[in-house]
Structure formats: C-alpha cells, structure tokens
Amino acid sequence: MMSRKCTLLCLVFICGALCLLLLCDNYCPDELRFSAESGFYEEPFELKLSAPFGAKIYYTLDGSVPDENAFLYTTPILIEDATSQPNVHSMRTDTSPIFSSESCEYRLPDYPIDKCTIVRAACRDADGNFGEAKTESYFVGYDEKAGYRNMNVMSVVTDPGNLFDYDTGIYVLGRKYDTELDENGQPLWENANSYNHGSAWERPADILIFNTERETVLKQSCGVRIQGGGSRTYLPKSLNFYARETYSSAARFYVDLFGTEYMADTVTLSAGGQDAFIKFRDMLVSTLTQNRAFCTMSFEPYVMFLDGEYWGVYWLTERYNDTYLGYYYGVDADNVIMMKNNKLTRESEEDWAVYGSMSNYLQDTDFTDEENYKSVEYIIDLRSYIDYYATEIYIGSCVDWPGTNEAFWRVRKPSENGAESMYGDGRWRWMLFDVNSGSLREAVVEKDVLALTMERSPAFRNLCQSDAFKEQFTVTLMDLANETFSVENTEPVIEEWLALMRAPMEVHLRRFYGEEGLYHFDEEVEDIRTFIKSRRPYAAQHLKENFGLEGALASLEI
Fold it and tell me: Residue ranges of the alpha helices (H) in 199-348?
C-alpha cells in the first residue's frame, strides 16, 4: 500500500504540473491574445495582452496598424470610458466643402463626443517580422448614455490614413480639390477624393457589430468605400462594406443582419443623403410599399463609431446586386442583368443589346393597338413597372428621377419550364431606392410629376397612349393615395419611428449641426406629414388632366 507521505508527494507533483500548464496557457500562447473580448462594460478594467514565447507585442489606440513606432506592450492597458479624451477626427474641416461655404451648416463639436477604446495589436518575432494585427473595441459606461436605446452599434476601425490622407484618403476633399480650380478660381466638388469610385478607392477596415442586446453579432475584416452620388461631399457620408476573401476567410457577411436570413456580400451604412436631418424618407417609402411588385430594401437602425469616435446615426441597408437578387428571387446570381442609373452593373455588349431591345420596344411600339399592348407583358413585368412608376410619381420624385435613381433587372437567359423560379422568365422588373432628394416634401405637394415623367421618359409617355395602361395606372395610383400613403396608414409608422429615433437623432444632430439641429428635425417631420395630408387631391387632378379623364372623386366602399 502506498504511504500517506508518498501520496502527498504525488499530489504536490500533480498540482505543480497543473500550475505549470496554467502558467504556459497564460504566458506562452501560440497566438496573440486579449484578456477581454470586445463589448460593453460598466466598469473600467485592465486589458492584458499575451504573445507567443520570444515575441514582443506592439499596439495602437488610434486605429493605425501596429509597427515598430507603435506602443511596446509592457504593462496592462487601462480600459475606461474614453469620452474625456480629446476629439480628433471630428474636428477636421476637410471632410466637406460645406465647412468653407458662406452658409455653413456643419458645426465642430464644442464638447467631448462619445468615444470607445480601440486596441489594435500585433506580435513582432525575433527576426523583426510583424504578424497579423488583431482589433478590439471597448465601450465603457454606456448604460445610461442618451441616444443608444434599441439601436445597433457598429465600430469601424481602419488606419486613419485610409480615410484622411491628403492624397489617398477616401473621406476628405484632398489635394486635387484644393489645386485643380475652375476658370473662376473655385474648386470643383467632383474633384474631391470622396467623389472617386471603384476598387482603387476601396480601403481595408475591421467592422464590429453589436445588436440591441449588446451581443457581438459580427466581427470581420472587409473593404470600405464611400457610397452615393451628390451626397459624397456631405458629412457624415454613407459607406459600402464589401466582404471579400482577400480581407478574411469569408466572401459573405455570414450573419442575419436584416432578419430575413439573407447573407449579404455587400451592405450599405446609409447616412440619409439629402434627407440628412431625419433620415426617414427612404425607410418610410420602402416600408409602406414592401408588398408591391418591385424590389425594396430592409432597414436596420445603427449608431456608428469611426476609429473610436462617435460618428452618428445610420440605416444599415441591403445593396442591390446579383447576390441580393439571387437570394430574394431565387434566380442564378450569375444569370442576372441589372441596369442602375443608366449603367450595367456588369459590362457586356450582349447585355447592352438586351437592354436596348427593351428600351426601343417601349419607346417605338404603337401601344394604341390592343395586341401590341398585350405583347408588352412578354418584355416587362407590367405590374412591377406600374407599381414603381405610380409610387415615384405619387410621392413627388422630380429632382433626379426619372433617368437617375432608377434601376431594373431581369435574368439574362430565361429558364425553361419554370426550372429557376417564377422570376426567371426574362422580363424586366423594377427596384426602388434613393427617394430622399425631392419626395414627400410640402414644396412638391402640388407638383404635376405625372406630366413631368411623361416629358422626361419616352417609354412612359408612349405607354400612356394605351387606354388599358392609363386605366391600370390610375387604379394603382389612387390605391396608393387612398390606402398606402393615407394618414391612417402612415401615422402609426411615423409614430413608431419617432419613438425609436428621436433620442438618437438628438445626439446626432447636436454632433454635426449644433444645438439648433433638432429644430430641423421637427421641421422635416412636419414637412412629411403635411405632404401626406395634402397630396391626394392634387394627384387625382393630375390624372384627370393628363389622361383626359372625366368626372370627380367619389368614395366607394367595397
């Protein structure tokens, strides 16, 4: 029998071995480790970093990629509420020409804006080689802060030079804007760095998303670009994020960001474009028309932090592309033709010919002939076309539509016997987006957008020669007036949105426009309500005048 002394010695030996293993786990990892994950914390804490044996750890707190000039890690890093730290990027005035205009609207914050602590760290081996950087974001003391309730939070981290470098930064005006002036010595907005498009102006970034319960739902390296048209010189700007295997192992964002189980490869963080004071018109129209026969986007509310600084309120939206159409319409993503703003999303002479055939047919065919009009259903989904055009016309889109802010799609090669889906029939269908510039405003409530559309669009004007088309269009537009955009239908959506967004928008508007920003918010909400209350009789009168209808409005109960 083993003696008690021997047993104790064995136990001591085993405990010693366990302690040695624990020490190795803490101090001799096979990769760089953080003692705390990204997240929301109520109390300050010390963050410990550990590296493989023989490696040194370098870290940064400003979003830059660690190199030999970064901090050398020797002691734990204190993580606390970083709001008291000086404002950095938010104090820049080279992000928009509006800062230098006589009627300047943007304001630099005269108080410490909310901040989080971002830690980027990398190991350097004995040969001086740096490993891959790891990035974490820490929010301390946010439970009682205003403007975050029921909002998702996104932290975007990238080397500051990717955004603000004079020559290559995508978020600033840049050298060309400052030096290449017009004949009057004035800069051109289209010369701004932020106006550049394409892969050459995509930058690497790390994004981290927390849901409303403050759970981490996405942490991924990806590409980022500026998104939009004329709004590219606004502040803040909309951003596109691209999942690519060149940045991480994933070619998608493999998380359900919109509650539809759609795993997107590209998403947009929309700043609202021309609807900057309330960021509501796009979301409102898409929500009200989501059961119509055209594409609409999903919208999720976000607060975004850029390299650790509060950067405002946004909607995260889907982006129309082949992947979107493949998921929602059950078609082969590689078999899609999509036109957006008079450009093919994939350049192809064959696809241009398909589009040209449709365009010429709609413009040149005599649709007063009943058989010709029936044949149009083989070319386009007529319900999609009428729903889309009636919606745009009723809400008063007349600034940059039709012509721009218009998109439509079809499959390239129609499927046989419905093998692909009901949408694989080769007919063109329409897509709603970017209705924020001129619509749902009191200034256009009396505007005859129907006449304007007939003037601007040869295809629409030609279709309006058909009595059958005019009848279908009239019924659809009046259904929008009586039901979809009625006060009874829209007011609950407006109230629900106000309950969610008023507090976050107060923080946002103060950050970018100063204390008077909230006045614009209330003004814009009232503008939408006035349009909705007043639009119906004008839209009916425009139908009567342009389509040669007789009689007067009457109520019919079915």
Answer: 281-288, 322-329
- The pLDDT score that the predictor gives to residue 12 is 38
Work out whether strand 299-306 and strand 266-270 pair parallel, antiparallel, or are unpaired.
unpaired
Q: For residue 286, what are the contacts with CB-CB under 8 A and spacing of at least 6?
A: 296, 297, 298, 299, 432
* Residue bearing tokens 């890093």: 77
Do residues 526 and 312 make contact, with C-beta atoms less than 8 angstroms apart? no
Residue type, 400: D
Only one residue has tokens 């204390």, namely 515
Give the C-alpha distances (Å, rounded to integers) separating 132 from 123, 128, 138, 221, 385.
Answer: 8, 13, 20, 12, 50
Helix, strand, or coil here: 287? helix
User: How many CB atoms are closer than 10 A to CB 67?
Assistant: 12
The confidence score (pLDDT) of residue 549 equals 84
Cβ atoms of 432 and 388 closer than 8 Å? yes
pLDDT for the residue 4: 42
| Local structure of 224: helix, strand or coil | strand
Whole-angstrom Cα distance, residue 69 to residue 428? 56
Paired with 209 in beta bridges are: 154, 218
Mapping DSSP to helix (H, G, I), strand (E, B) and coil, where does residue 492 land?
helix
| Low pLDDT (below 50) residues in the chain | 1-28
Q: How far apart are CA 171 and CA 195, in angstroms?
A: 9
The reported pLDDT for the residue numbered 418 is 53
Give pLDDT tens digits for 256-312: 999 999 999 999 999 999 999 999 999 999 999 999 999 999 999 999 999 999 999
Q: Rounded to a whole number, what is the distance in angstroms from the first to the last CA of the chain?
A: 96
Contact 501, 313 (CB under 8 A): yes
Length of the chain: 558
Predicted local confidence at residue 30, as pLDDT:
66
Query: Beta partners for 79?
Result: 45
Strand partners, 221: 206
Buried b (16+ CB within 10 A) or exposed e, 73-82: beeebebbbb
Strands 152-157, 299-306: pairing is parallel
Complete DSSP assignment for 533-552: HHHHHHHHHHHHHHHT--S-
What whole-number distance in Å separates Cα of residue 299 and Cα of residue 411? Answer: 26
Residue type, 209: I
Q: Do the Cβ atoms of 244 and 223 come closer than 8 Å?
A: yes
- pLDDT of 403 reads 82
Provide Rg for the chain, Cα atoms.
Answer: 28
Tokens of 192: 């701004």
Q: What is the pLDDT of residue 518?
A: 82
- In this structure, are residues 285 and 391 in contact, taking their beta carbons and an 8 Å threshold? yes
Please state, in angstroms and rounded to a whole number, the distance separating the CA atoms of residues 259 and 382.
Answer: 29
- Which of 214, 95, 218 has its CA nearest to residue 156? 218
Q: How far is CA 343 from CA 24, 227, 440, in A?
A: 59, 16, 27
| 105, two tokens | 């609207």
Number of separate helices (H) and strands (E) present in the chain: 13, 20
Q: 326-357 burial string, b = 16+ CB within 10 Å, else e?
A: bbebebbeebbbbbbeeeeeeeeeebeebbee
CB contact set of 318 (below 8 Å; sequence gap of 6+)? 258, 262, 264, 267, 268, 297, 298, 324
